[in-house]
Amino acid sequence: MSSSEPRQFRIEETGARVNGLELELHLFFGVWAVVERGEDRWVVATDDGERRTLVAVSD
Hints:
The protein is an alpha+beta fold. It has one helix spanning 20-28; strands spanning 8-11, 17-19, 32-37, 41-46, 51-56. A 5-stranded antiparallel β-sheet has the order 2-1-5-4-3, covered by helices on one side. The radius of gyration is 11 Å and the shape is globular. The model has no long low-confidence stretch (mean pLDDT 90).
């Protein structure tokens, strides 16, 4: 992630918030895998096969 990318995301399905570090760690340790990545939205697959949509939150 570059410094120009948002540092906070909201998971559409749950309303939970995820910061940039949490996102990077989930991806690094294989808890999530990126399925689709757009400018302000990421779709990830969890390690149990569910999909989550992460939407950038602007400050």
